[in-house]
Amino acid sequence: MTNHKKLSFVLIACGALCVSSCTNVDYCDGGVNHDHSDKVTVSYEWGADIPVSVRPDSLFLLVDRPFNTQRVGYVTSAINSDGGRYRFGATVDSFALALKEGEYRFMAINDDVWHASQVQSANNDAYDYRFDNIAGYVGDSLEMSVGFSDLKFSYTLRKCTDARMGDNGLAWSMLASDAYYIPSDVAPVYFAQNGVGKSNQDVTISIEPGANTKVNLVMDKLTQDITFSFPIAVDASVTIKKVLAEVSGVCSSITLATGVVHDDSTCNVLFEMEQKMLSETVCECTGTISVLGLLANPAGAAVIDGEGILRIRVDAVRGGQSKVLYAVANIHNLINEANLLVANENKELVRGTKEATLRLDGSRLRITKDLNLNVEGNATSNVWNVLRLD
Question: Distance between CA 126 and CA 135 in Å, rounded?
Fold first, then answer.
């Protein structure tokens, strides 16, 4: 990973009023010194909340001219700012790219999102995410059915028993039913665009010969971090060995430029909780997932299946005995109170916050010396229910 907080590359834009060597063509090879070229510097800005250790090795950049359509895909290394290469839309394999003058939009995302999109076309699920509809974006001018504002990012959904889900998936499989999952350890995805503004209005940057245009893209995490926490009380000599948690109602796709999260394709996330003994009889459990969004149950807070449900599996031991215990809670109210997703002007769901903590303390679980699971407390919402499989 690079130690720089910015990485840059240069796009060379060529004016429409060119001399005979490049009249009425999309590219001209005059380079930075060409009379009709504009040296455009695009910088990726990384905030202090995105440490170098988690940044991707390379980024995939889309350069989009909506009028007299031209689309170019470019990859640049985060280490070597001018060591990029073209993926589509270019006629030369060199750093300097010459374009007609015009109005342009820019989008940047992890390079492996693009790469996965090419592999996924062969029904390969080796990657955790992809562009959902890139084929319609990069087609020729007669086949471009997908515009800049329509590009979608989607996660690969898997069964609980998929090898990618690991041992935890196998341990959970008896509860999984027909659900689909996103692995909890998916690498973070970072994203920036300047082609769509507030109220989903198109925004473009004018590139003119000799203007030395500078474009700054501020990279941000595409997902939101949601932390779940709750206490479990234990009787004397009871030890909690492991806690697995599953949350349902996780959104699996998003329209990138507008930030609209889709609620018509939800899945689950299975993750392991960290445990910390606050005292000899109270264990604090904490776990964080990074997702596009989390939906509350449309049926309200009373049901214990469907979206917006938290289920846990607790492996407990006492002496030479061990037992697996299960509990379930509807976190409808916690989700809504956290404003994880909010409606935009078009009543579409978009991210409401970058991070949130959902603490389930309306009731408390207790593991008895007989390794039974009980619920304590008189709350009427955000409460646990013991889940019995026999």
Answer: 19
